[in-house]
Write a structure and sequence with these properties.
heterodimer, A: 315 residues, alpha/beta, Rossmann fold, Alpha-Beta Plaits, six-stranded mixed β-sheet, four-stranded antiparallel β-sheet, 32% helix, globular, B: 307 residues, 11 helices, 14 strands
């Protein structure tokens, strides 16, 4: 087993009195697309900053390609691509000028720069916008330019902090396609997201909750470990009150109902698996169409929070 | 119940110079609906919302909001609507109750009415114990509920929500949705914009904007059936590139996307034939049924528009 490209071992960190990481351990191998998934304030950004060597942990070990990211002489910085959440490009420079500027910072020679620029522009489909000012780019295009800048020096390890936040679904899917491409070239990629549903896109997922790892595995394995059952309940048309009739049924099921959320014309209900057949029968008798649906990562996240030994009350 | 639509938008357009941000948009939203308005960055979503909130005049067409022409009576419309965005604006150095007091006052509420509304609002969003806490010291999920209470303090019949649950803790998100659902059942209408296709699934109907035009409108199920036909499969394979290349020449394969540890494939092939085709290419592959998503719809429609 080769040394992982990114390794964190029992890392603790705090900002003033606020504890941001509580014993976080993880490893990302070359070629792996690892997703650190959790809500705002879960500690995602702190973890990335520690990996990027922007700050030091209170305790624990952080290693990038076996080296301490705080050690500037180790070549770690050169091996790292880091895209923070608010990536500052020069708004009054064009796409091409921004790329050129950062290429100069990385001391790329002219020929290398040209070749990499052209490849990145082709991959990101930004070539037609070469002369557009960065300020005038859409959110998705801006992120793709920021990503290109982070990739100019061909890092072995890529750290992306919420690259898809605020980006529309189509551009988001394109960003993921880019990440798959780079992972296929043996880059180790660690990406954070607060969009729970994006966990399914990662090769391996760490669910982060209040600075600690709640669960970590492949998306398929995580979903397979979900204990409850998700039901999609469709009512036959009707007005906004169509789901009111289900209230008595749901109340009768009591604790067996874990969660109820609106879903199109009906409801999405998470029930304890032991009560699945009873719930299905009752809801069908009430005139609904009921079918089982795959669980989402949000369901998974909440069930893991509830099962955590020191589950903290989320106010 | 009032049967006139809460939103009645007819041939709405807005130009900025030669740029058509919104073109001939027409839709209605009946009372008590959660209506989702989706679109790419720059597709005209925000422009539409600004018009509907009375912040921007339309260049053409008209929009009746709560029965009033928003182009002519923007102030009347503003008083009847509530607005909450992901980047909600709260006063961090005021307490929770003071925030509500401020927003209620801005809507012309005063005296006993305002006090009652604040008490009811705090109870509705479950924040009575937090009433005297400084807003800045509260976690994101709580602040989000304060913002919701603010947007509801004047009892608007129409509530605009802009990506309201992005980034919040899943538990807080469920509580938030539960409050919204209760409101909707009491007759409030919700106009929701989001990039978060999970959120869009809550909506009774969804409208999708591409380059200033409303290109699709219907329930999530209708949109999937219409614009993303076929069945969706999650194919687990180590040979994503080979399979993608092979699928691209098969007309029965409607869409292929790299996804997690494999591919997401939408096809018109019957399950058995599809599974057989996959296993011929990669005997170790796994084939599991997946649900069509609004993202499939979104991608299909944007691709159509590009052609």
């Amino acid at each position: 087993m080769p040394e992982p490209a990114v390794r964190m071992q029992d890392v603790h960190h705090r900002h003033g009195t606020v504890v941001s990481l509580r014993g976080l351990s993880l490893a990302v191998r070359p070629g792996e697309l690892y997703g650190l998934v959790g809500p705002d304030a879960a500690g995602k950004t702190s973890a990335l900053r520690l990996m990027a060597g922007v700050m030091a942990p209170a305790s624990g070990t952080v290693r990038i390609l076996g080296n301490d990211p705080l050690d500037a002489g180790s070549g770690v910085r050169e091996a790292l691509g880091y895209m923070p959440q608010r990536f500052s490009l020069y708004g009054d420079l064009s796409v091409g000028e921004n790329l050129r500027f950062f290429a100069d910072l990385f001391c790329l020679d002219r020929v290398t720069y040209r070749a990499r620029r052209d490849r990145l522009l082709a991959l990101t489909r930004l070539a037609p916008f070469l002369d557009r000012r960065a300020d005038a780019l859409s959110g998705g295009m801006y992120k793709k330019l920021a990503l290109s800048v982070a990739l100019l020096h061909e890092p072995k390890v890529l750290l992306l902090d919420e690259p898809t936040n605020g980006v529309d679904p189509v551009s988001r899917a394109e960003l993921w396609d880019l990440l798959y491409e780079f992972a296929a070239r043996d880059m180790a990629i660690l990406v954070t997201t607060s969009y729970m549903d994006e966990a399914a896109r990662c090769g391996r997922v760490g669910l982060l909750h209040q600075g600690a790892m709640l669960a970590e595995d492949t998306p398929t394995a995580l979903v397979a470990g979900f204990q409850d059952t998700v039901l999609r309940i469709e009512t036959d048309g009707g007005g906004p009150d169509a789901t009111d009739a289900l209230d008595p049924v749901l109340s009768d099921l009591g604790d067996a109902v874990v969660a109820v959320t609106p879903l199109g014309m009906g409801l999405r209900v998470v029930v304890r698996t032991a009560a699945r057949d009873r719930a299905t029968d009752r809801l069908t008798a009430a005139g609904c169409q009921v079918r089982q649906a795959p669980p989402g990562f949000e369901d998974l996240f909440l069930s893991r929070v509830a099962a955590a030994p020191h589950a903290m009350e989320v106010p | 119940m009032n049967t006139a639509p809460i939103l009645d938008v007819q041939d709405l357009g807005r130009r900025f110079g030669d740029f058509h941000a919104v073109r001939n948009v027409t839709f209605q939203v009946p009372q008590g609906e959660i209506f989702g308005y989706l679109g790419a960055n720059g597709a005209g979503k925000s422009t539409t919302i600004r018009i509907l909130c009375g912040l921007l005049a339309p260049s053409s067409g008209r929009a009746l909001v709560l029965g009033r022409d928003v182009g002519r009576e923007p102030e009347a419309v503003k008083r009847g609507i509530g607005y909450m965005s992901q980047r909600f604006s709260l006063y961090p150095d005021l307490t929770v109750a003071e925030n509500l007091d401020f927003f209620g006052g801005a809507y012309g509420l005063a005296g006993r009415t305002l006090r009652t509304r604040i008490d009811d609002g705090l109870a509705e969003v479950g924040l009575v114990p937090f009433r005297n806490r400084l807003t800045a010291t509260l976690p994101g999920g709580i602040q989000q509920r304060v913002a919701l209470a603010n947007a509801l303090v004047h009892q608007p019949r129409l509530l605009f929500l802009d990506e309201p649950t992005a980034g919040v803790d899943p538990a807080a998100r469920r509580q938030f949705l539960d409050i919204v659902r209760r409101r909707v059942r009491q007759g409030t209408t919700v106009f929701l914009t989001t990039h978060y296709l999970d959120e869009a699934e809550y909506c009774r109907r969804v409208g999708l904007m591409v380059q200033g035009r409303l290109v699709a409108l219907g329930t999530p199920a209708e949109l999937k059936a219409r614009h993303a036909p076929g069945t969706v499969w999650a194919v687990t394979t180590g040979r994503t590139a080979d399979l993608t290349a092979a699928f691209s020449s098969q007309p029965e394969v409607l869409a292929v996307q790299h996804f997690g540890a494999g591919l997401r494939v939408r096809t018109s092939l019957e399950p058995a034939r599809f599974a057989a085709a996959v296993l011929r290419m990669d005997p170790n592959a796994g084939v599991e049924p997946a649900d069509a998503s609004l993202e499939d719809v979104f991608r299909a429609l944007v691709a159509e528009d590009d052609r």
